[in-house]
Amino acid sequence: MKQFNLKALLVATTLTAILASCSKDKTPTPEIPAAERAGIYVLNEGGFRSNNSTLTYYDFASKAIIPNIFSVTNAGAELGDTGNDVQVYGSKMYIVVNYSSTIEVVNPKTAKSIKQIELRDAGVGRQPRIIVFNKNKAFISTYDGKVAVLDTASLAVEKFINVGRNPEQMVIANGKLYVANSGGLDSFTAIGPDKTVSVIDLATLTETKKIEVGLNPINIAADAYGDVYVISYGTDYPAKPVLTIINNSTDVVKSSASIDAGYAADFVVNGDLAYYITDAGKVKVYDVKTDVVSKENFISDGTALVLPYALAIDSTTGELFVTDAVSYGSNGALYAFDKTGKKEYSFTVGINPGSIAFVNK
Question: Global pTM?
Answer without folding.
Answer: 0.91
